[in-house]
Amino acid sequence: MSLTTLRSRCVEQIRALHASAAGRAWTPDEEAKFASLESEVAEIDSRLAVIESAAGEEPRGRRTRPAAPGVANYGNRASDSDALRAWLRAGTPLEKSEDRAVLQSRNWHGGMNALEFSRPNSESRAIGKVATQGLELVPTTLAGEVSRTMQAFAPVRAVARVLQTDAGESLQVPTSSDVSNSGEIISENAAHNEQDVAFSSVTLGAFQYSSKIVRCSNQLLQDSGIDLAQFLGSILGERIGRIQSTHFLTGSGSGQPQGLITAAGTVSAALSAQIGVNDLINLLYGVDQAYLADGNAGSVGWMMSPVTFALIRKLADSTGNPLLQPLVDGGPPRLLGYPIYFSPEMAAPAASAKSVLFGNFAYYLVRDAGPLVVARSNERYFEYNQSAFLAIQRTDAKLLQAGAVKVLAHPAATTTTTTTTTP
After folding, report:
1. Which of 235, 253, 289, 378 could form an S-S bond across to 91 if both were Cys, CB 3.0 to 4.6 Å?
2. Looking at the structure, do residues 265 and 373 belong to the same domain, yes or no?
3. Residue 314, Cβ neighbours under 10 Å: how many?
4. Rounded to an integer, what distance in angstroms lies between the CA atom of residue 116 and that of residue 93?
5. Does 177 fall in a domain?
6. How many angstroms separate the CA atoms of 232 and 213, rounded?
């Protein structure tokens, strides 16, 4: 967190203290908190004065702090020092235009890399540690967009049940299965028997996903023809989406989320490297119909890779009609009455592969401990005049009922041996 941001937070807390104590005497706890905040503001002001002095600016009298509780005169007077602090706080790309005007009027154009205005043709702009990376973003004229390689990610999240919590403590989700029990016929005047309902639970944690840090030259952030900070934030979010997409399918459940394929029951395919109409029908009816008709029936469907979909597209039923139904109103393609969702991470039909999922994906619970956070640090690599970008999300996921989703499992490849007899 930058010094000016920290100072602003302290000031806001002081203002809140004054507001809460209006018209009454301060309590000892309030006086102690005020003294602590006042001391912290003074220390921050001292550190900012050192930075300003190093930049060649005479430190200004910043803001008068109240000498005693009850006097709230923390203002926000604009000055050359304020402009410099704004510049240092944001690196170079996000300062207000009026801040830049103040700095230019003061002829600050050298001495500190963060205050460099001129851009010789030979000056490099870098993303990461390689000085030449990112030069393509600083031409004379550049359309405000970047074409990047895209891959569909986290399709499971789109059909699963997603629960967001404020914190990441262990979350106990109760479950119950009563399928082995049934009612009975009782004779007149006979006592009714008892049968308890068994409960269990599924525990969800919060694994911390990281996009990995991206370092970016502040000169590049300033000179780029696009909103590079926003672009990087989007890229980092996609990185987390990709690893979650993999774990939501094949995660082991130990040290990472439990994947759908890992947890689902299996239905055997007839052949190792092919898929047939009977395989799909067996998979459809391998899921108990109760899961397909409950209140979450809108989440029932198929999940497969585009490669598998292409193979199914060529299949026909016993009358010669295509197995796949035509698209309706631009929605997803449908197979045997249910929508198909695509996941590039799923395997194509092959020996020992698991190629197609079917079931009610609402029984797959994704738990997010807070939202996806994209953070930017202007201080960590200050000596390199770089900003660091990082995305973080805390997530776990599990299948609550194994019978709600089934996966088509192909057998291992068989080898044919030829026996030669010698006459």
Report:
1. 378
2. yes
3. 10
4. 12
5. no
6. 11
Give the CA distances from residue 10 to residues 65, 84, 118, 379, in Å, rounded to whole numbers and listed in that order: 12, 20, 36, 19
Q: Looking at the whole model, is its pTM more than 0.70?
A: no
The residue assigned the tokens 């921050």 is 44
Same domain (yes/no): 104, 212: no
- Using alpha carbons, select from 412, 422, 418, 383 the residue that is nearest to residue 113: 383
DSSP output for 17-77: HHHHTTTSPPPHHHHHHHHHHHHHHHHHHHHHHHHHHHTTPPPP---PPPSSTT-------
Same domain for 239 and 107? no
Residue 161 in any domain: the answer is no
Distance CA 389, CA 213 (A): 6
Give the tens place of pLDDT for each residue, 2-11.
667 777 888 7
Condensed to tens digits (0 to 9), the pLDDT of residues 290-343 reads 888 876 667 899 999 999 999 998 888 777 777 776 655 556 788 988 999 999
Cα–Cα distance for residue pair 142/224, rounded to 1 Å: 9
Tokens 């205050």 sit at which residue? 115
